[in-house]
Amino acid sequence: MSQSIASVTIAYNGAKILPRQIDALLRQSRALQEIIVVDNASTDGTSDMLAQQYPQVTVLRMKANVGAAGAWARGLGYAALEKRHDWVWSFDDDSVPNTFVLANLLDGIGSLNGTQAEVGIVAPMPVHQKTGTCYPPLLWRNGFVKPSANYMQNPLWFADLIIASGCLVRGELVGKIGLPRADFFMDFFDYEYSLRARLNGYKIAVIPAAELDHEIGNARKVWAGRSRLWTSYAPWREYYNSRNFAYAGWHLYPTIGTKSFVLGHLARHAGAVLFFSPEKAACLTKMAQGFWDGCRAKLGIRFTPNGHSHHKKNGAAPQSGQVAAEDRRA
Fold first, then answer.
1. pLDDT tens string 69-128
2. What is the rounded CA–CA span in Å between residue 295 and residue 285?
C-alpha cells in the first residue's frame, strides 16, 4: 500500500513568496495527498491568496502568532494525529524543493530495507542556491558537531540535529514522542524535537541527493579573520535563540560539557553581534534576558515580531500542541 504523505508549511505574511513553494509542491514527481499551510496570523492576506489561487490547499489560520514552534506543533498535530498521514513534510514558507526532492527522500530510506522502521525523520540537504551556502544537519556531542566532509559524501548518513524545513517526519513518531514545544516560540525547537526523537530510539537519516533551496535568515558576507556569512537577527529573535539554547543546556541536557558549550557558543555569538549587528545594544540586551530566562526555565511567548511584549504568569505559555484557537479551511 502506498504511504500517505502531507506537507505542512509554516507561513507568516507569505502572500508574495508562498506561490513559488506551493507550485513546487504540486509539481512533485511523487504526489502529495494533502498540502497544509498554517497561517500564523498573517496580516498581508496570505489566507485569501491561498483561497483564490490554491483552493485545494488546507489552511489552518491561527488567530494569534504562535511562533514557528507553535505553528509546527499545530501542523504536525493536524496532519499526523488528526488526519493520520504516514509522513509529514515540513517547510518554512520560503523553502522551495525541486521536482524530485520528495522522491529522493523516499528512495533514500527505501534503500535501508529491513531497518526503515528505525528512521523517524528524513532530512534533505538545505542549500541556499544564490550563495551556495550549505546548512548540513549536525551531530550532538554535548554541543554541535559538524560531520566530516567524508562522512557527508555518503549517499545516506545519520545525524542528530536537523532544521524543520524540508524534513519528513514519520506520523508514528509524532504519536509516540508528542508534538514540538510550542513554548519555545522560535529557534531550537526543531533541534529539541530531533534530540527527543533520538532519545526515543529513532534515527534521523540524511539524503544529500535531496537538495532543498533554503536560507537561514538574511545572510551577508563579513570579514572575521576570514570571509564568513553573518545572519543578522532582530533583537526579539536573539532573545529566543539565547533563551531556548540556555534552557536546553541547564534543564534538558544539564551536563558540564553542554553548559560549557552553551556559554562558549553564546559568548562567540555576542562578540559577532558586537561587530556586525546594526542593533548591537538591543540585541545584546535581549540575549542577556534570554539567557537568564532560559536558566530559570521561564519559557513562553515574551516578545513578538511586531514588538509586543507578553507577560504571562510564571512565564507560562502553551505547551506541546496547546496553541491559540484557529479558523480552518480545507
1. 999 999 999 999 999 999 999 999 999 999 999 999 999 998 887 788 899 999 999 887
2. 16
Fold of 5-216: Spore Coat Polysaccharide Biosynthesis Protein SpsA; Chain A (3.90.550)
The C-alpha cell 499526523 sits at 80
CA 52/CA 17 separation, integer angstroms: 15
pTM: 0.90
Tell me the per-residue pLDDT of 219-234, one tens digit each, with 9 for 90 and over: 555 545 555 555 778 9
Q: At what angle do helices 280-295 and 256-276 cross, to 10 degrees?
A: 170
Residue-wise pLDDT for 267-292, tens only, equals: 999 999 998 888 999 999 999 999 99
Question: In the chain, what are the domain boundaries?
Answer: 5-216, 219-315
Which residue in 226, 162, 227 sits closest to 196, CA to CA? 162
Contact partners, residue 231, CB within 8 Å, separation at least 6:
216, 217, 218, 219
Cell of 237: 529573535
Provide the 3-class DSSP secondary structure of residue 50: helix
Query: Contact at 8 Å (CB) between 71 and 40?
Result: yes
Helix ranges, 200-252 (H): 235-247
Say which residue, 231 or 55, is predicted with more confidence. Answer: 55
- The bridge status of strand 58-62 relative to strand 326-329 is antiparallel
Q: Give me 67's grid cell.
A: 511562533
Q: Cα dihedral angle (54, 12, 41, 292), rounded to 10 degrees?
A: 160
